[in-house]
């Protein structure tokens, strides 16, 4: 059983628990699902899962034995109508809304939902906005493919890659939009080489139908309408094909022009017939500096590569610490000691504990008294000297723009993240004033998940982002790229916009709620690379002394 299949089963349970209004347990399953999906090796036993809740570990063990479902999931499926479960998984429809439709209108199928669109519009319980959301959700549902987030694309892609390598293929790499780090993707592309490749793919990958099959290509669609597309190539052309199938089309088109001018031929499949042992060598043979996948969009990257002017983009190896982690003091599941242990394992120089502040009751936010107690624990750990633990908090920006802790408390913290979790109904003018006051606070270091959007669920706050960027620049506040899977906020396009507005500093925050979430760091690196950021703009790349200097210019 692949990590992706385990992830899907756990997320199914999460949805059903939300339909039963068991929010705390649903949250545990969701957080556990994300951790399993992000793991860099296939789950074969419980040894790598000790950080997860015991009940979830038990369920995963049962899945590994059965190769399919588990008893807790089956019990929930018996209790909740299938149609209600389906409506709750429609893009943009929350389980609470699905339950409301079921209880008030008796909607328990997709056809029922279509028939009740007018009733939804004219009932005060729903209204025209919700009706518009339902119509959008149905349109997405009726597409012949399912869109995936970057996190989903990589998680599923890596599960398939590991499976194919385990089953005998010599080379497998994810390509396409996923490899370039696009925010949402319509399919997952792979380049593969090895004997009996078609046979191994069809035997290994679970699918409901073959959409297209040739000697060197196969496109599959799985039971959830996700497209998996495999280009099969000779080993000697693997890296040339990887460049071709990674794209973008415009980038590849320009490369082919250069290749033809140098006398190289083009294969029937579209890739340049250049033998190379790496992508770096492929670009070199075309007379170009290596171009990272994330910036292959046919903009100015080829012209820069011709002049050897592609900058050194931020890399995973540059990252020295995580600046947004929640412990079990608030809504995380691991202790500070367990977070420290995982951070040492990752060779981090520092890590920030940033539990929620008191007004965010739903996340078990900390009172000043509890925060001070947490700070005492951090001070004790720091005396042992194994890692630099930063005393931090994700501090709620209140409705008037003030912060949730007093200045006396904020000044005792090493790092202050500020964030909004309420106010989605407020106007841009109101939210702009709120954010401006928060970023102008002398203690503010980082604006966390700036837009507040959740992919496919909500668009975020009404905000004038150019004004936000201007205020951040003026006050030397770093903007976070929050890489919790359903956030990915800021997006690469907004990071580019912020850079054009003069914002100097950005941070990556995994927003980890268990130590498995610390694997999300790779997505932040990918987003920032896509925005052409170099290490000097990313405060997670600073050594501890440099980071403290940056933070202290604000807080002290």
End-to-end gap: 52 Å
CATH homologous superfamily of the largest domain, by name?
Metal-dependent hydrolases
Structural class: alpha/beta
CATH topology of the largest domain: TIM Barrel
CATH architecture of the largest domain, by name, is: Alpha-Beta Barrel
Query: How does the overall form come out from the CA principal axes?
Result: globular
Please tally the β strands and state the result. Answer: 14
Total number of helical segments? 24
Q: Which radius of gyration do the C-alpha atoms yield?
A: 24 Å
How many discrete domains?
A: 3
Low-confidence region ranges: none
Description:
The chain has three domains: 3-141, no CATH class; 148-306, Beta Polymerase, domain 2; 316-555, Metal-dependent hydrolases (TIM Barrel). It has 24 helices and 14 strands. It has helices spanning 3-19, 23-38, 54-66, 71-79, 82-88, 95-105, 110-115, 117-122, 128-142, 150-166, 176-180, 197-204, 238-246, 249-261, 279-285, 301-306, 336-345, 368-384, 407-410, 428-440, 465-475, 492-500, 521-530, 544-555; strands at 148-149, 171-175, 184-185, 187-193, 209-214, 217-221, 227-232, 321-325, 350-356, 388-396, 415-419, 446-447, 478-482, 506-509. The strands form three sheets. A seven-stranded parallel sheet has the order 8-9-10-11-12-13-14. A five-stranded mixed sheet has the order 2-4-7-6-5, sandwiched between helices. Helix 1 crosses helix 6 (95-105) and helix 20 packs parallel to helix 21.
């Amino acid at each position: 059983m692949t990590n992706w299949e385990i992830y899907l089963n756990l997320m199914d349970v999460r949805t059903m628990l939300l339909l039963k209004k068991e929010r705390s347990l649903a949250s545990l399953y969701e957080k556990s699902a994300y951790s399993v999906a992000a793991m860099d090796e296939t789950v074969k036993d419980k040894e790598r899962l000790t950080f997860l809740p015991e009940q979830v570990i038990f369920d995963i063990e049962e899945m590994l034995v059965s190769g399919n479902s588990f008893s807790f999931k089956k019990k929930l499926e018996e209790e909740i109508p299938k149609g209600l479960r389906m409506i709750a998984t429609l893009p943009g429809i929350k389980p609470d809304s699905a339950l409301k439709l079921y209880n008030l209108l008796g909607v328990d199928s997709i056809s029922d939902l279509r028939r009740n669109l007018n009733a939804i519009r004219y009932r005060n319980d729903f209204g025209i906005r919700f009706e518009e959301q339902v119509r959008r959700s149905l349109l997405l549902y009726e597409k012949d493919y399912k869109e995936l987030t970057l996190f989903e694309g990589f998680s599923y892609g890596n599960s398939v890659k590991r499976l194919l390598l385990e089953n005998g293929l010599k080379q497998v790499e994810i390509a396409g939009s996923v490899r370039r780090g696009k925010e949402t993707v319509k399919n997952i592309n792979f380049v593969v080489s090895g004997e009996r490749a078609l046979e191994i793919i069809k035997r290994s990958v679970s699918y409901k139908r073959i959409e297209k099959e040739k000697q060197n290509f196969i496109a599959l669609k799985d039971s959830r309408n996700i497209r998996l597309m495999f280009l099969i190539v000779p080993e000697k052309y693997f890296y040339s094909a990887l460049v071709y199938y990674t794209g973008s089309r415009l980038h590849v088109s320009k490369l082919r022009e250069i290749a033809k001018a140098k006398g190289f031929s083009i294969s029937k499949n579209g890739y340049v017939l250049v033998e190379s042992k790496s992508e770096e060598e492929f670009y070199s043979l075309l007379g170009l500096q290596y171009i990272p996948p994330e910036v292959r969009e046919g903009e100015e990257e080829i012209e820069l590569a011709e002049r050897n002017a592609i900058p050194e983009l931020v890399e995973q190896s540059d990252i020295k610490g995580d600046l947004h982690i929640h412990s079990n003091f608030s809504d995380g599941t691991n202790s500070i000691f367990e977070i420290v242990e995982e951070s040492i394992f990752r060779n981090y120089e520092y890590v920030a504990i940033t539990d929620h502040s008191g007004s965010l009751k739903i996340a078990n936010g900390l009172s000043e008294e509890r925060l001070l107690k947490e700070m005492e624990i951090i001070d004790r750990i720091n005396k042992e000297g194994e890692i630099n633990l930063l005393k931090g908090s994700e501090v709620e920006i209140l409705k008037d723009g003030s912060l949730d802790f007093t200045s006396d408390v904020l000044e005792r913290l090493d790092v202050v993240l500020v964030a909004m979790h309420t106010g989605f109904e407020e106007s841009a003018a109101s939210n702009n004033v709120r954010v401006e006051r928060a970023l102008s606070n002398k203690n503010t270091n980082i604006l966390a998940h700036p837009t507040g959007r959740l992919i496919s669920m909500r668009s975020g706050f009404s905000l004038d982002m150019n004004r936000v960027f201007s205020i951040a620049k003026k006050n030397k506040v770093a903007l976070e790229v929050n890489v919790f899977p359903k956030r990915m906020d800021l997006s690469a396009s907004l990071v580019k916009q912020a850079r054009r507005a003069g914002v100097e500093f950005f941070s990556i925050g995994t927003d980890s709620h268990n130590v498995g979430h610390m694997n999300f760091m790779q997505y932040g690196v990918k987003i920032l690379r896509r925005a052409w950021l170099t290490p000097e703009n990313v405060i997670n790349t600073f050594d501890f002394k440099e980071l403290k200097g940056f933070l202290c210019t604000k807080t002290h």
